[in-house]
Write a structure and sequence with these properties.
3 domains; D-Maltodextrin-Binding Protein, domain 2; elongated; LysR_subst-bd; Arc Repressor Mutant, subunit A; 11 helices
Length: 303
């Protein structure tokens, strides 16, 4: 059994909100969390403390004796901690300190420069610490303020918003295409493929292509599998095969003549881009201004 010391501050905040509102749904709404997350976190808190804190019925929630004691014991202390943390926000609203951002190498290479340029204009006194990884980061555990991700997030306790859509097509090096006669997706059954791991199904590259009217699903073993699209773009530019890249990631290679579209009338499924942050950080000036810079950057790109 877990010791009482394993109860974390966020779970206590959730408990206090439920205890005062006597409603899971009301607490979830105020905390910007799914009701299932509120219920799960309270169950974990009760397990950690070894006592039942709440009596649940179909209409309301009431406190047990242990729940009343916990509310009286920690309610004021948690509020004092939150006020102390809020005190670190400058009175003049100026953003200062360090902002930790997590994203993939491909996203950082393609989109981060204009975002950080705009952010430097908004918050010149903030130091930005960028963590690049192809894996989803535990924002709370890693102390990350904001994550930028391609594909819908699965972090149920985070606030997330779709900020844009990335179109994907097939690309290759001009020299690789020189000896090939590619007129339809069926011709891809006999070429080398460079595949991103998220586009794999079992051991096969799984590419769903469309020209707006027709659809074609390609499933076959790739020659190379990579974890990050930026690495795939480099390998494709070196003539190691055909791969699916976002138009944004391929743009520099196309402009420099390193890449050319393959079957340009066919395209892959669009990928949505999101930012994520913990709901208790959204009001911090350094975070709020960064999210603003992200939105403005993608608004410009979409015009």
């Amino acid at each position: 059994m877990k010791s009482p010391q394993s109860a974390d501050l966020n779970s206590l905040r959730i408990f206090l909100e439920v205890a005062r509102s006597e409603s899971f749904s009301s607490a979830a709404l105020r905390l910007h969390l799914p009701p299932s997350t509120v219920s799960r976190r309270l169950g974990e808190l009760e397990a950690a403390l070894g006592v039942a804190l709440l009596l649940r019925s179909t209409r309301r929630v009431s406190l047990t004796e242990a729940g009343k004691h916990l509310l009286e014991s920690v309610g004021g202390a948690v509020e004092l901690i939150d006020r102390g943390i809020a005190g670190f926000q400058p009175a003049d609203g100026t953003a200062r300190g360090r902002l930790r951002v997590a994203t993939s190498v491909a996203f950082a290479r393609t989109f981060l420069p204009p975002i950080l340029k705009r952010y430097a204009e908004l918050c010149p006194e903030v130091q930005v610490d960028v963590q690049t990884t192809h894996q989803n980061v535990d924002l709370i555990g890693e102390g990350v303020d904001v994550a930028l991700r391609m594909g819908e997030p699965v972090d149920s306790e985070m606030i997330y918003r779709k900020i844009g859509t990335i179109e994907q097509r097939l690309y290759a090096a001009p020299a690789y295409c020189a000896g090939l006669a590619l007129s339809s997706p069926e011709d891809l059954m006999h070429v080398a493929l460079v595949a991103h791991r998220t586009r794999m199904r079992r051991e096969l590259a799984h590419w769903v292509l469309s020209d707006g009217n027709r659809h074609f699903t390609l499933e076959r073993p790739p020659s190379i599998v990579v974890d990050d699209p930026a690495i795939g773009e480099r390998l494709i530019s070196e003539g190691l095969g055909i791969g699916m890249l976002s138009d944004a990631l391929a743009a520099d290679g196309v402009a420099a003549g390193r890449l050319v579209p393959v079957l340009p009338e066919w395209f892959g499924p669009p990928t949505h881009v999101y930012y994520l942050y913990h709901q208790q950080l959204g009001d911090l000036p350094k975070v709020a201004e960064f999210l603003k810079a992200v939105r403005e950057t993608f608004q410009v790109r979409s015009k």
